[in-house]
Queue: 2 jobs
Job 1
Amino acid sequence: MEKPQQFIQDSETIAFNKEHRRIINYNIDKYTSATILGKQQFSNIDLAKQRAATTKNKVIENLDKYLIEFESNFIRKGGKVIWAQNAEEAIAEIKKIVSTTSRNYIVKSKSMVTEEIELNKELIADSIDVIETDLGEYIQQLSGEAPYHIVTPAMHRSKENIAELFNAKKHTSSDASPSELTEFVRNELREKFITSEIGITGANYLIADTGSVVITENEGNAISGMSFPKIHISICGIEKLIPSINDFDVFVTLLASFGTGQQITSYNSIVNGPKQSDEEDGPNEMYVILLDNNRTNLLALEEQRRALACIKCGACLNVCPVYKNVGGHTYGTVYSGPIGAIMTPHLKPEENYYHLSSASTMCGKCTVSCPVGIDIHKLLLYNRRDFVAKGHSTKTENLYRFFWKTAMLKRSKMDKGGAKVKNFMMRQFFRKQWGERREMPEVVSKSFNQLWREQRGIK
Ligand code: SF4
């Protein structure tokens, strides 16, 4: 089945799954209440958003400069930078590093970029075990499912459902409480952190003027994963830069408030490279993999490149009426929701993901919710425009759009045939797209124009 049809079919199924709806509504409601409180820490939230937006714009417009600045500063402190044009290059470099170790297993913290390049699948196929150490990711790895949401990977699961999963896979009690399960995972992971030779993390930000990698998290698993093993690999997209350590305050607080409703995330690590001679903790080697993977396609598009400012807070997903109904997996992409719909067609141009740009009501809630001022719904419209310009729309669609435009541009054509013909044409051309569950709007017998003329006696 083609991707657009699959999306519609899966949306139809999941939208009527009451249990899914109940869990998602419950979790998003909790998120919404938390963010209301979290945002109160800003005396002028619009100013903070504006500052973040301006900073990220500056980065996007001068990305080459900031990348090189980061690289030279990071290398100065003993770190190694690897430039990867695509997933294959990134995976090959990681495998090369892994081959210098005993290859027992890798501890990994949450990272959407590693999902993007399907790192776990590739490593496991090469008999290298990868253990997810973020609780949500651990749950998803246990179930064999992809993350459901860019911030909360297991958002679609209830505590009962998680207990059942652990019971089936780890033989814990079927009615174990969340704290009992957390304790179980903690005990299992402690041993892994200590004995693994490699820790892989993502990066929330790269700071150009200090050559630092910023990792924010709530569980302390990323800190453990980059402190105990002798090698730390941080992999991130090239867009993750911020110019200066002086920008850190605004980004770290915006991400916490918009992502989880916290004032600040529990653990914020600014890592400057491997362990120095006067330091006791930290890895002997540290690598940063700067991944392009078609981000430069997006960078080349003057109108859509603003999407690269995204700090992956997930706020636009949580407010989106489409996401709330169809959920994260239906998109069939790593980055779901409104921002995923903008980015994915450019990150995966060989696959047709343009239909996702139409999965929007254009209500604009995503744009309002965005802490870095991305005009999300406008960018979706640019994608739709490009979709048509690239010839991806069907012949039937092109035909009815042609007739629609011809009629709309001339009053005499618009009025031709009256309401009866218009209703017939509407049903013929739009019934399928309108969907079975909505009543087609009826064109009334007299148009506004006719009523206006009649009232004023205009012929
Ligand atoms: S587009 Fe904005 S709201 Fe959506 S995830 Fe990115 S930063 Fe958050």
Note: The chain has 22 helices and ten strands.
Job 2
Amino acid sequence: MNTSRTEAAPQAANVVFIHPWDKAAAGWNSHAAAIHEWLAEATAAMLGAARIGPGARVLDIAAGSGDQTLAIARCVGAHGHVLATDVSAAILALARDNARAADLHNIDTRVADAQTLGLEGAGFDAAVSRLGLMFCEAPLDALREARAALKPGGRFSALVFSQPQHNPCLGVLMNTALRHAGLPPRSPYAPGALMSLGEPGLLARLLHTAGFSGIEMRTIAAPFHWPTSRDYVDFVRTSGTPIMEILAPLPAAAQRAAWDDMAAQLKVFDTPGGWVGPNELLLCAAACPL
Ligand SMILES: C[S@@+](CC[C@H](N)C(=O)[O-])C[C@H]1O[C@@H](n2cnc3c(N)ncnc32)[C@H](O)[C@@H]1O
């Protein structure tokens, strides 16, 4: 792997900036196998929608610890290249470790907020983002930045969570965390929220406003399989930044009570073959005009 990456985490003298997502980096990465299986079909659809093939130069936005980055790197091959970007320096460090362990040498990383990516004119053939865009409070800025990084005719594809009724576990997690923290309920479509881009029609409108053409949207079912609801909650406890952040100010015992409450409520999704949490993703595909 090329190590000539750009690292731009904001720092002041003697102060290292810790992004909230840094705290979930190890947890997200340690559940990589489960995440890979959960999102395998959707990831293949995203790469297909972006028409990623051998030799392509691809931008991966909010790449995390790089599960889809590695899939892209394999797909583009030795003559292609992937730039994995993320706001968390800690999670990108794990993406680099994973690329090295997989013996992939066509990946670079760059710490960057999707909303201020700063890659205008980079001329990528394609840009993708898996479960990252919805965390942007200004998703239109992120889409404009993605478009600016593409060559004319370049492809964009992204996966986000769809509507609350099709992602009931997310509602249970969020509402329970807020209640235990003594906070009022929040709109699932609030900017930056887990399902913020699931609001019907919103992502297509934003893509259009950002200047993309040929916009296509479809939903993909992505049930999440775990042995028990407790295993799912343990995953969220270490990897789910939005929920972790709500509970973080509480004493340890109060946090435990909240996680226990979530695990108990989520038993409703027990099946004879284990726990299956329904999830629905929205896949968008679009092109940068010629
Ligand atoms: C749910 S994880 C998904 C990671 C990876 N794409 C995957 O699917 O495995 C969300 C990722 O979005 C990143 N993220 C959140 N807000 C971001 C922003 N404004 N700009 C760039 N990355 C962001 C987080 O650091 C985290 O790595």
Note: Confidence is low (pLDDT under 50) at residues 1-12.
